[in-house]
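Consider the following assembly input.
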Amino acid sequence: MTIYPDTVAGIANALAKRELSSVEITRHYLDRINALDRQINSYITICEAHALEQARAADRRIASGQGAPLTGVPYAHKDIFCTKGIRTSCGSRMLDNFISPYDATVTEHLNNAGMVLLGKTNMDEFAMGSSNETSFYGPVANPWKFDSVPGGSSGGSAAAVAARLAPCATGTDTGGSIRQPAALCGITGLKPTYGRVSRYGMIAFASSLDQGGPMATNAHDCALLMNVLAGFDAKDSTSVDHPTEDYSATLGHSIKGLKCGVPKQYFDKSLDPAVAASIRQAITELESLGAQCVEVDLPSTELAIPSYYVISSAECSSNMSRYDGVRFGYRCRDPVDLQDMYTRTRGEGFGKETKRRILIGTYALSSGYYDAYYTKAQQIRRIIQQDFKNALAEVDVLLGPTSPTVAFGLGQKSSEPVSMYLSDIYTTAINLAGLPALSMPAGFVDELPVGLQIIGDFFSESKLLQIAHQYQQVTGWHLLAPPLGG
Amino acid sequence: MEWETVIGLEIHAQLATKSKIFSCASTAVGAQPNSQASAIDLGLPGVLPVLNERVVEMAVLFGLAIRAKVAPSSVFARKNYFYPDLPKGYQISQYAEPIVSAGKLEIRLADGTIRIIDVTRAHLEEDAGKSTHEGFAHSTGIDLNRAGTPLLEIVSEPQMHSAEEAVAYMRTMHRLVRYLGICDGNMQEGSFRCDANVSVRKSGSTQLGTRTEIKNLNSFKFIERAIEHEVERQIEIIENGAKVVQETRLYDPDLDETRTMRSKEDAHDYRYFPDPDLLPIRISEEYLASMARLLPELPDRKRQRFVAHYRLSEQDADLLCEETAWADYFEQTVEISKADPRFSARWITGELFAALNRANLSIENSPLSSTSLGKLIARIDDETISGKIAKQVFDRMWETGESPDEIINLQGLRQVTDDSVIERLVIQVLENNPQQIEQYKSGKDKVFGFFVGQVMKLSEGKANPSQVNQLLKAQLDKAP
């Protein structure tokens, strides 16, 4: 049996050296998906024919000497990114029949790089969820323990990468949707600075918070994928015209002298003590690499969740309005009049969690409540931004847990929305502040992965990747794969 | 009981851009349904708006023209409501922070009174699509070609007190936006339309009465009629001891009446909030200064200049300043003719406008250029031809496009100014009409006109009329 490389860097290297063809590695991943994904359910759509066609094109491109660094490398695409001619469901019945007529900017970048789309990954409906249980296409199993959740909303992408059903994947992060599933599935995921990766064609959940980013088994691979995803886009007014960089350039640099802040609020009673121990251990490891760690204060941490759920739900309530059955997507059968079409289309097309957020958001924006909720939440948002600014004036990065617990059981929190929302306690504030943050595997508790979160200043993605890469040079958590066979 | 009417207007001016406010799709009208609706206009999942910078220029020009405050930072907001021709389920508009606020517009009423109306605000927004029922059985067709067309909504203070004032305000605004080149002003196509907020109160009261809003008035006539009707209706309600209900009404031009569209209870909660997809519009002092340099001469200034500089009557100046194209045509004609400007004004507002009207042409498409008309007027002024012959030349120029000199020379229309030639004609006429000479001598002065007519006829209209007068008088005096 052939042993294939299972990292982006490894595959790219083998392709460049012609030790491997893109068709061969693509076939390999498709075989694994066909063999294993029935149990994991990480893909909504498997693009077998399309993938093989892209792989053949990639092989021709490499043969002609025109290959880009990741030409021919397969990837999984979160089903929130529009892909021309391919269903883009966003995990919802509402878009179950939606074949996008256009490519997202990120999809264009991936196509131009010559990467091979294996399929579209499962996700919480419209990216609203922390467990991947709100998907119309059913929950995703955590590859480490099938009766546990993979996290969400990019649960399909995280599970696919962890299970080696793709060497890397795209994700989106509105309140932790890249980092938390990365943590729960034991992989590395980066949420870039807001505005670094184009949102054009990335179906909106909460526009001021949404940000796409890379997910892979290790930091080096995330850096390589980030080189493809990042860049200014004139089609996205919130995209920042900031020079792009080679995110892999400084990976090898030592982190000696790096100043790290450890927010004391991230180690309060909501954090599982065993997870805390793993995180402390990882911090010690970084110190042994030359990092200097000090405790810092993020006094508004506990305000992040209420502020986040008001703002994200308010934006969501408006963003979800276009799903009305008029122009595309689901429409109820035999509407008797306009009102009936609206109410039944939306009643039947949206799942429970999406409806809950629409209701919360509509309420928060209503006349008479706007100031008490929306305005207040925006004020808190500014306070949180200031908190981070103060902390990052003292240190280079902040370190802490990504999630208060390891993966919880399927169904365990799905009937308790507030308890589910609280699992985002360490991630949402970063979106409110617009900062970049990365999660990487840093140990195991009960045979489930623990994620360490590294938070940096605006456009410090290279530094975050460098820290993670340096850590991964001396630890092996990122090398562990769930025992799945196949 | 004396009643005072209070009117505020919300004008929607469609901005004359080539592409839409947030997408590259064309704004041209008349295309196949939905052929000018891009992914953005359709509100497809994942699309994002990108602001067309031309609309900002236009709004800023407008703000400068009404001496308003142009906000250094203004914000787009989402106005949320469901309607089939509103693709995203929200309209992108401006709410708490509009681009233009606190402007002033001077209006002139028929009796010459001048009033200054405060303009509360003007903000940018996108238009919705259209729902059509024709040709669809049991369903509605949606055409999104118009969706995303840029609009400037101009809101006045409730400071007008009659339909006449409202119409004067509307007309002044209509002329202004066309002067600025920011709106084509086509009211029939809805490029310039308004909603009127109307209330009445007892004269002398400072409290506003309950208002109604009359939607979508797209002609000056309709505005006038709708307001007059609404005022009558409201006064009647109050005088009968009832109360006016706050509501939105529709004017029906066919029945010439207003009727309820929706009551306040059905009013939407639009849940406005800043659109997170768009950045605030930032306007620097430098940008404002550069836009101020682009500001054209405004209608009032032009009118005053035409009166002062060209010595036109208020009426002619007002008429010529209605359209910049007319005013420009006039000034070019004066420049070419070198004659008294009032003479050019008379020709343009008389012969030219009549001919354009008959042919249903705009001045831009006139077969007669300002240069040609100027040359014709110059020939009248230098007495090459008479005014009467000039009309003949004008008609010929209109039909053939030939220059006035060509026509005058080819047709031999040059005025006869040679005294000896005219004298011969005079003598001939007198010889042929001895009876009329006797009548003249006996005191019938009217006969003089007869002689003039005969001389002109004999000269085929080419004799210089004042010379004819002079020589005729001399000959008659000599006659026995």
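Chain A has two domains: 8-258+395-479, 302-379. Ask yourself how this observation constrains the way the partners meet.
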